[in-house]
Amino acid sequence: MTRIGESELIINERGAVYHLNVKPEELANTIITVGDPGRVGEVSKYFDRIEGKFEHREFITHTGFIGNKRISVVSTGIGPDNIDIVLNELDALANIDFETRTIKPNQTRLTIVRMGTSGSLQASIPVDSFVASTHGLGIDNLLHFYKLINNEEELQIAQAFNVHTQIGHNGLQPYIASASAHILKEFVVGFHQGITVTCPGFYGPQGRILRLPLQFPDLINQLTSFRFGNHIISNFEMETSAIYGLGKLLNHHCLSLSAIVANRVQQTFSKDGGKAVENLIQKSLEVLAKI
Questions:
Q1: 257 vs 16, 61, 146, 237, 284, CA distance in Å?
Q2: Fold classified for 24-288
Q3: Helix and strand numbers, DSSP H then E, in the chain
Q4: pLDDT above 90 (res 1)
Q5: Among 235, 230, 226, which Cα is nearest to 164's?
Q6: What is residue 255's predicted lDDT score, i.e. its pLDDT?
Q7: Which pLDDT belongs to residue 270?
Q8: Higher pLDDT residue, 291 or 100?
Q9: Are the CB atoms for 117 and 258 separated by under 8 Å?
Q10: How much is the pLDDT for 213?
Q11: Are 231 and 157 in contact (CB under 8 A)?
Q12: Cβ–Cβ contacts within 10 Å for residue 34, how many?
């Protein structure tokens, strides 16, 4: 078995993976990711008990229990680059032996559920509602550094998106990955479903104009009008496609859940985004605790 070098997998002095500062035994197999480090406590306050809290930079982890269900909640920070760190380190904690620095012969399949905020791209998906993402369609470049293999439907959606937006003519190559059907089926009642586009930024990449002209000035309208069979683009944010792509490659169950705090079609914003997120957390934890 090939040994993984010290420079490739950094383990700190307490035996924890470098960025997350978590040891293998300190991580649950069911994991909630949140972008905002301050949101970790907003999730873990619903735990019946917390067994450990760990922190390094923007990465905060609380591990505890709801009943007999062991759950970790981890802050990722914003963007696909942070997801690259978090997903790889979560997998390392589960599937690499830190003593021998070798891949374990029997792999653990994690359940990873993102709970975050997002902007709706459909008038029919109002602020304060919830979206469970069927697919993550990335217009960032993260998954181009990995060997992602798509099924036929995914390839057709990505091709149709490229034709519809012509975004590939400007050097961007969209990629796509699907949610875990095993988890997605549990989040139907009370949730809209659709394709979530993941952007590498908040302003220009999401069509916001402040002082800079945009390369894709019609992006919002193009995303809103896209159709492929029964599929629509429901929303966009900054992590979902990276989670789905890496999760697929690493063989984990992944799902992205979003509280809609803005509707870009109606140009409305939630009057209480914090309450919308809290409602999403409560509703989602009730489901996760039973899976």
A1: 28, 19, 24, 11, 8
A2: Rossmann fold (3.40.50)
A3: 7, 14
A4: no
A5: 226
A6: 98
A7: 96
A8: 100
A9: yes
A10: 97
A11: yes
A12: 25
Q: How far apart are CA 212 and CA 204, in angstroms?
A: 8
In contact, 72 and 29? CB cutoff 8 Å: no
In terms of DSSP bridges, do strands 49-56 and 59-66 run parallel, antiparallel, or are they unpaired? antiparallel
Using CA atoms, how far residue 226 sits from 21, 46, 117, 221, in Å, is: 41, 38, 22, 9
With beta carbons less than 8 A apart as the criterion, state whether 195 and 157 touch.
Answer: yes
Quick one: 97 exposed, middle or buried, by C-beta within 10 A (0-12, 13-18, 19+)? middle
Contact status, residue 144 vs residue 173, Cβ threshold 8 Å: yes
Q: Which helix (H) or strand (E) holds 128?
A: none
Amino acid at 118: S
pLDDT tens string 80-98? 999 999 999 999 999 999 9
Cα–Cα dist 32/62, whole Å: 10
Q: What tokens appear for 160 in the block?
A: 């149709």
Q: Residue 169 CB: number of other CB atoms within 10 A?
A: 8
- 73 class by beta-carbon count within 10 Å (0-12 exposed, 13-18 middle, 19+ buried): buried
What SS3 class is residue 64?
strand
Tokens of 222: 């193009």
- 48 sits in which H/E element: none
The model's pTM is: 0.97
Instruction: For residue 70, count other CB atoms closer than 10 A to its CB.
Output: 15
C-alpha to C-alpha distance for 216 and 213, rounded to whole angstroms: 9
Return the amino acid letter for 282. Q
Please enumerate in sequence order all residues whose Cβ is within 8 A of that of 160, keeping only pairs 6 or more positions apart, or say none.
Answer: 226, 228
